[in-house]
Amino acid sequence: MRRVRRTITPALLAAVLGAAVSTATAHAADSNVALNKSAIGSAACASTEGPAKAVNGSVSGGNADKFCTNASGKWLQVDLGASQSVSGFAVKHAGSGGESATYNTKAFSIQLSADGSTWSTPVTVTNNTAAATTHPITAASARYAKLVITTPTQNTDTAARIYEFEVLGSTPTSGNLALNKAATGSTACATTEGPAKAVNGTVSGGNADKFCTNASSKWLQVDLGATHAVSNFVVKHAGAGGESAGFNTKAFSIQLSGDGSTWSTPVSVTNNTADTTTHPITAASARYAKLVITTPTQNTDTAARIYEFEVYTGAAPPAPTVVPVFDRIPQFGIYVSTEPNYTPPAGVLMWNRGTEYAKKLTAEEQGKLGTDVALRLTYHAQCDNYDRFGSIFYISMPKGQVPTATTPRVTLQDFITPFSDYWQGTKATRVYPDAPMAAYAGALSDPNRDVYLGISGGSNPYAQDACSNRPVDAAFKAVGFTYSLALVSTPSTVAGDRDVTSALSRFEIKTNTHTTQSMSNTAATGKGTLAVSIAGYGAASGGEEYSKTTVTLTALGRQVGQFSTGVDCAQYEQYSPDGNPGIFRNNLTTNPRSWCPGALVETRFFDLGDISDQQVAVTIGINRPVPFVGDSNYRTSVSLIER
Questions:
Q1: For the whole model, what pTM was predicted?
Q2: Residue 417, domain CATH
Q3: pLDDT per residue over 339-357, tens digit each?
């Protein structure tokens, strides 16, 4: 991708400011409902220019403060989180970010969908030259918005540059008034766990996605920005974020104030144990809301953990449903040749000497899964304190049939364990960010199939590991670590195609080119999406674990995707108390890595368009010299999702 110097001329400044004024005037009563929402798109030009940059509310962060894509099919899709009344759009092109106007998007369309499968196209533009464009429409109800780019620039440059994609709609008055508002509180446990984390609208970002405080006086205060008739509160405690229910807040009160000085106390709780609590009150006028914590946990731990503090003018939305699958399922050694002395819980299948497990979802559990379904994984450290590879998968079977260890499976999410052990206190537990599974919602909830959810990987307890010289028995020492797994969802109707075909599942590619078997399809609407997870492994000096490279995907006679495997591990150092800090630093420059300990391995999705009556084989190109060093390989999963 070509870079340009950011020179702001008077004419360009006037154009940008004029466009901004136009947007505000045209939609003064509306808000940007795409702001900081989940965004996906075609392959990015660079790892720093992904889809999230187009919904971060900023065009002032320099050249990289944009979504850039040079894929053959260029698109950006935003999940608004719930159905919204959409009344228009604003698109900020290259010129809005200070780049040359010749890079402004020339031709594009904007689509809307309620379910992510069936789309309408209320906006089509064929000859734009402006740095910022606004597109009012007749109000339409939708949850998903997609920007499809057909001519990316005014010249022959083929990269699309979108600095912001705004979806304008009326914010319901019954929404969470505290969302992203100014929050203050008692001293935080860590700089990454400040008050703002309790009003960011999410509990799915892992252990650090919370307000944590260990001060002698524990409190959290939110300025709602204006006076409102407050009638409800929701507090999401430690368990809502995947931590132990023993850390749920036991005793607390909620206060309201019109001026931040004089307070009333409409809510007092003395013996809570629940993960999420809802507190309706008689409507009261207030601008400020305060959560005061008196007993932070169910045990002797003194830190308060608040994942979300929500304030409403109407009824609170339904809480997400949590479907437990595994609770501390043990991972035995991958090099042990005998079956472990362990009997799994009723209904759980154990394979490969206690390194793989699967459990059938009941019809009732499948019925609880909606289009926002996500995986919630928790790692519990024990003896093996090294970084190990793990994978979550599912197997779809005809009714009444039971899978075996060799039954074909679909990989849902790969991950790496952190460097930790049983004696590391709170850092012995790693709650991973929730992994969205919307693409697989139809398959997981298919009422006509028996669906088994599984987890695999195993551990490697070793001589002089964390259990050596500890007073623990042989059964404890045989377990490297344990996993808990749950599905999290707000129940809703799942429509559309339910078919998913797996071409590769944790397949080890040892050359720089590999072509999958052909996948047939019966796509109900003729459309298909490719799901790909790939990362390099090999710990020997010069191994692929210590590299980053460009991966190219080709299917249906054309390039359908290209991306870098490089990752930045800095944010994950906090979860690996037993690890070498150097592993997590300078990963994008002098110390490249293909994955991070304590992190999920990214699954990427690529729109294939029309796949009707076509066999889909995928060629994976890895831009690395061969042969790879030692036992290095690229562990790869590829699936075709019909839609």
A1: 0.66
A2: 2.60.120.1570
A3: 999 999 999 999 999 999 9
